[in-house]
Structure formats: structure tokens, C-alpha cells
Write a structure and sequence with these properties.
The protein is α+β, with helices and mostly antiparallel strands. 50% of the residues lie in helices and 20% in strands.
């Protein structure tokens, strides 16, 4: 694999990443929980606890708002709670049954974003509705057929990797130190096994770490690769001698990062293992897409004869270091309270 061409590829990737956040915008969450029996009794209305959680990016919330049918009344006022990276709003509503059966709940502004909204409706009799709203489908009916869209966890895993630019940059950074296809397979397998372990134990709440320091350390993992790649005797670094070990160690941390989105939306009680498996499979599909795209790009430009100065070959390393340093400061400043 031509290292110079690989560096050119990473340069393109990191330059693009300067204009975007390290993480994809996480999905919003809209929960309706029945608290007074209405749908399964002679009552003419039903009361819900409502929880609306939406992401905050750069201190600003997305312009998303759930629009409840007009005939519904608010019985408990809205209460806002601001968390790192999210706004949570809670209130209660009471809606006539015939209104819910005929009218849709809409997420206003969703069609103008790139995010999704995960919807969960829980009834007192134990039945549930879980669905995903997208910019092309911003509404749903409360009385839609009950069930859980497990395949949505697969697509969420793919999106989480493809729009998790720090995870992508870490994988690309490993390529500075991998020589030969067998070593590539070994290194990527080590990263996959590691993040699968911590993704599982974190998502199932067996071991949990605060997301803020995890994301800061993920940025440091990229900075570590950039530092080792910048050394004159790169071949003697641990990343060059044992890239699979570096991939495994830092992969454990990246797994906790992957778990963040599942902790936000939760796993279905009766299908937690399957949903987790599908999400992890989606992450691996996204990872394969990134690596195959890189290898395909390298194959195409390897046919070109280009003489690149040494300083330009080194530029991607410094971009990677500068970008990861920025991400680290961006994430650690709120932790220390500056």
C-alpha cells in the first residue's frame, strides 16, 4: 500500500472534517407513557406522560418541536432540564380517543434536519409502539400497529459510524502503521472485538462510564496516533510494531462511545440482545464501507504518477493532530468547568 497516497486520502478526509463536528447529531427521543387507562376502558380520553429529548449542538438546540393534536390539553406544565448535549422536556397531556385515532403527531422542523426521532409509546396493558421518524416521514399515529422496528437499530449503527467522524479518523489513522492486507485484517478485527465488548457491557448497563470523559479520551486516541505517525523513527513506535494492540486498547474506549446513542434511546426490554446485535452489525457495516472506500480510492489514484513534496506528505498527520487537539479541548473544557 503506497503510504504517500494513503496520506493524501487522509488529508482529504481531515480537511473535510474541519467543517463538521466529530459526532453525528444523535437522534431525538419522544416518549408517550399512558398513566390513566383510556384506550382499554369506557373512558373517552387518555392521559400520557410525555418526555421529549433532543440534541444540543454547539450550545444550540435543533429547531424541532413535537406538535400534539390541537384537541389535546396539557394537564401538567412543561419542565425543562438541560444536560450536556441534550434538552429534556417533560409534561402531561390528555387527549380524546377519537382525536388520537384520526390525527397524527408531527415533529415540526424534522424535514429540515439530518437527524431522526425515536418514538416509544407505552400502554398500561403492556403493549408498545416503537418507530423511527425521519426527515421524509416526520409524523406518526399513536394507534399505528404495535411493535418494535428492530431493523432501525441496524441502520442506526451504520449511520453512527459513518457520521462519527472521530471514529472514522481513528480507523484511518491506524492505516499509517498497517502494512499488508493480513495486518490490516488483524488490526481491524482487534478494533472490532474490543469495541463490541464495551458496547455490549455499556448498553446492557453492566458497566457504565460518563460519556464526557470517554469522548475526550477518544480524541486523545487520535492525537496519540498523530504523534506517533509524526516521529522520524515511526517504524519503532508501538503503533507500527503492534497496531492490533493499539487498536484493541483504544477500541475498548470507542465501544463506550458507540454505546452513548443506545443509552440515549434505550434497548427494547423483550429484544435487547437482538437490537444490540443489529446495532453492532450496523457499526461493522459502516466500518467496512469506510475501509473499502479508502482502499478503492487508493487503488484508483495508485495508477497516477504524482510527485509530492515531503512536507505535503506530512500535512495529513498535522491536520489529524490539530483536529484531535481541538476536539479534545472542546470536550474537556465543559468537564473542568471553564
Amino acid at each position: 500500500m503506497n503510504s504517500m497516497l494513503l496520506r493524501l486520502c487522509i488529508l482529504l478526509s481531515t480537511c473535510t472534517s474541519l467543517y463538521i463536528e466529530a459526532h453525528e447529531v444523535r437522534p431525538a427521543l419522544f416518549n408517550l407513557t399512558e398513566i390513566e387507562d383510556g384506550a382499554n376502558s369506557q373512558a373517552s380520553a387518555v392521559t400520557f406522560d410525555v418526555v421529549w429529548k433532543q440534541p444540543i449542538s454547539n450550545g444550540k438546540r435543533l429547531r424541532l418541536d413535537p406538535l400534539i393534536p390541537k384537541d389535546c390539553s396539557t394537564t401538567v406544565s412543561k419542565r425543562d432540564e438541560i444536560l450536556p448535549g441534550a434538552l429534556i422536556r417533560r409534561w402531561q397531556i390528555r387527549c380524546p380517543l377519537n382525536t388520537l385515532q384520526k390525527q397524527l403527531v408531527t415533529i415540526h422542523g424534522l424535514s429540515s434536519t439530518l437527524t431522526d426521532v425515536w418514538v416509544n409509546v407505552a400502554w398500561l396493558n403492556g403493549t408498545t409502539l416503537s418507530t423511527v421518524l425521519t426527515p421524509s416521514k416526520p409524523d406518526f399515529g399513536v394507534y399505528e400497529s404495535k411493535g418494535i422496528d428492530l431493523l432501525a437499530y441496524l441502520s442506526l449503527g451504520v449511520e453512527h459510524l459513518l457520521f462519527g467522524f472521530d471514529h472514522i479518523l481513528f480507523v484511518l489513522g491506524l492505516m499509517f502503521f498497517v502494512k499488508g492486507f493480513p495486518n490490516l485484517v488483524k488490526t481491524i478485527t482487534a478494533f472490532t472485538v474490543a469495541h463490541s465488548i464495551t458496547l455490549a457491557v455499556s448498553s446492557l448497563k453492566l458497566v457504565q462510564l460518563s460519556q464526557a470523559p470517554v469522548e475526550a479520551i477518544i480524541a486523545l486516541s487520535i492525537l496519540f496516533l498523530a504523534y506517533e505517525a509524526s516521529l522520524p523513527d515511526r517504524a519503532k513506535t508501538i503503533s507500527a510494531r503492534m497496531p492490533w494492540l493499539v487498536a484493541f486498547i483504544f477500541g475498548l474506549l470507542h465501544g463506550f462511545g458507540f454505546a452513548g446513542v443506545l443509552l440515549d434511546i434505550g434497548l427494547p426490554q423483550n429484544s435487547a440482545a437482538l437490537a444490540l446485535l443489529l446495532f453492532n452489525l450496523g457499526v461493522e457495516i459502516g466500518q467496512i464501507i469506510v475501509i473499502c472506500t479508502l482502499l478503492g480510492f487508493l487503488f484508483l489514484i495508485s495508477r497516477w504518477k504524482i510527485n509530492i513534496p515531503f512536507w505535503l506528505e506530512q500535512t495529513p498527520i498535522y491536520f489529524m493532530g490539530a483536529l484531535s487537539s481541538y476536539w479534545f479541548l472542546q470536550r474537556v473544557i465543559p468537564i473542568i468547568g471553564l
